[in-house]
Design a protein that fits this description.
single chain; eight-stranded antiparallel barrel; Alpha-Beta Plaits; 26% strand
Length: 278
């Protein structure tokens, strides 16, 4: 593989925005009850418009009540473009409820499928045709392969937000230090480690829905990880087991972890009055 590009091919899909808000409970309690009910009703209508375009369509915006001190509400948006995400931000900012929300964190990324396995096959197939890396003919061959992959994997590239009770989100990097640097490891070794890493995730596939998004050049970390499940303890088990494999034990860096409980948008009014009604 030394004559081939060191960069694995990737496929990109939906644009993702995670918003984390602190809620101003003091100001909210000082607002007359009738005003609070009106503001809550307006916010529910606005969020339901963002949630999906019709009852039959996939969920594109989801609301979570966050545990801990990092924020109070998490709002997750899946859209077709960055422009669409920016419109979501602007639409939310027009609601009166937004006056009680303080953004404390956010994360921008795009759904990414890493193709370590198929990259090698694609590069070898192009080379077997006598194509030289990075020539126009090579680039056209690679682009054609990616188009076929994109069509075949469209449901994974443009997923709905899973309708699960719990969310765990965290960002991560690969180490780039002087002694340990993922990006200097030979392609074949990275391919092997990623294959072993992926096998662990597949074993949890029936209880955890995992969505990986790439954020290099878009946010402070290289990837964002969303885990959705009906039992939050499986987050602990999955992540703990993964830390024993080589790619995590040696090459991974993790950011903050955020955990939330699904808050049905129609129940937002109850939450605003101090009751988590699920």
């Amino acid at each position: 593989m030394s004559e081939f590009p060191p960069v694995p091919l990737t496929l990109e899909g939906s644009a993702l925005l995670h918003q984390f808000f602190r809620f101003d409970w003091k100001a909210w309690r000082a607002t007359p009850a009738s005003e609070r009910e009106r503001i809550a009703s307006q916010a529910i209508d606005a969020l339901k418009d963002l949630e999906r375009t019709s009852p039959e369509d996939p969920i594109r915006t989801a609301l979570f009540s966050e545990l801990g001190h990092k924020s109070d509400l998490i709002i997750v948006h899946f859209r077709e473009s960055l422009e669409a995400l920016n419109q979501v931000e602007l639409s939310l900012a027009q609601t009166e409820l937004y006056d009680y929300l303080t953004p404390v964190h956010s994360y921008v990324s795009v759904v990414e499928l890493g193709l370590y396995e198929s990259s090698r096959k694609t590069y070898e197939a192009a080379s077997a045709k006598g194509l030289v890396a990075h020539t126009p003919e090579w680039d056209a061959e690679i682009a054609s392969s990616l188009t076929r992959g994109r069509d075949a994997l469209a449901p994974r590239l443009f997923p709905a937000i899973p309708d699960a009770k719990y969310l765990c989100f965290y960002p991560m990097d690969r180490k780039r230090g002087e002694q340990v640097n993922w990006y200097t490891v030979p392609f074949a070794d990275r391919q092997r480690m990623m294959h072993e890493h992926g096998l662990i995730g597949r074993r949890y596939g029936d209880v955890v829905k995992q969505i990986i998004s790439g954020s290099i050049g878009m946010d402070d970390w290289e990837w964002g990880v969303d885990l959705f499940a009906e039992d939050p303890v499986v987050f602990k088990k999955l992540i703990y087991e993964m830390r024993f494999d080589q790619v995590s034990a040696v090459y991974a860096l993790f950011g903050q972890f955020f955990i939330g409980i699904r808050l049905p948008i129609e129940k937002l009014g109850s939450w605003l009055f101090g009751n988590l009604v699920l």
